[in-house]
Design goal:
Layout: E1 4-8, H1 12-24, E2 28-32, H2 35-44, E3 49-53, H3 61-70, E4 77-81, H4 86-94, E5 99-102, H5 107-126, E6 138-141, E7 144-147, E8 152-155, E9 158-160, H6 164-175, H7 183-191, H8 199-213, E10 223-226, E11 230-233
Parallel strand pairs: 1-2, 1-3, 3-4, 4-5
Antiparallel strand pairs: 6-7, 7-8, 8-9, 10-11
Helix pairs in contact: 6-7, 6-8, 7-8
Length: 237
């Protein structure tokens, strides 16, 4: 399968370097230097992944991310940023980016991250939930219902608004109730990479997820902490 990647980057030297190395890996690559044009292309052309710069003329990267996710477009997004603050990285992830790299970055790392996101995308497309839910589009856990195809979550029939990554994390947990995962395993399975030093990403997403789905986030019912190991999804009704 010939994968296609859209690179939205206003620095032409960086854009062409990224495109050159991705084409060497066998990917079809289109390059756009303006955010507004990039957003239009992303909407229409059905890419397998987007490499997206944060600071762009026209529409900025965060806005592109937010608008695509608002349209339920779940194409993997690898965000590039010249900024190194935690706030910028968190904002990108909150808007729905799947991963990020801070400039200057290693081309080898970028290619590795792209491959990891494409692998994760394949797994999520083919993954069927465990146990009694494997033939169904809905996972039910007590008062929670997860509509896999619509990426929609309700608790007591009330809709819960989740970011793309929060939904991916919840779906992975709920697909394997009772199974304990370390932060490193969750990084690998949900974010698509395992890397020491990124565990705080898992912690922050779980805290935000609990704030949305738990009646009492300090005493969670759905996403449970297994002290000294990691997290698991409840097996209780």
């Amino acid at each position: 399968m010939n994968r296609t990647i859209l690179v939205i980057e206003d620095d032409k030297d960086i854009a062409e370097l990224v495109a050159l190395h991705l084409r060497d890996e066998g990917y079809g690559v289109d390059v756009v230097h303006n955010g507004s044009e990039g957003f239009t292309r992303a909407q229409k052309d059905g890419y397998d992944l987007i490499v997206l710069d944060l600071m762009l003329p026209g529409t900025d990267g965060l806005s592109i991310c937010r608008q695509l996710r608002g349209e339920n477009n779940m194409v993997p997004i690898l965000m590039l940023t010249a900024k190194s603050s935690e706030l910028d990285r968190v904002l990108g992830l909150e808007m729905g980016a799947d991963d990020y790299l801070t400039k200057p970055f290693s081309i080898r790392e970028l290619v590795a991250r792209v491959k990891a996101q494409l692998r994760r995308s394949d797994v999520l497309r083919t993954q069927s939930p465990d146990q009694n839910n494997e033939q169904h589009d809905i996972i039910s856990a007590g008062t929670m219902n997860i509509d896999i195809e619509r990426r929609h979550v309700t608790i007591k029939n009330e809709a819960i608004e989740l970011t793309a990554k929060e939904f991916d994390l919840l779906l992975y947990f709920a697909s394997h109730p009772g199974r304990v995962y370390s932060r490193t395993q969750l990084l690998d399975q949900v974010w698509g990479y395992g890397h020491e030093g990124y565990e705080h990403t898992v912690n922050s997403h779980i805290n935000r997820l609990r704030a949305k789905i738990e009646q009492d986030p300090a005493n969670p019912h759905f996403v449970l902490t297994v002290w000294g190991v990691g997290y698991k999804f409840t097996e209780s009704p």
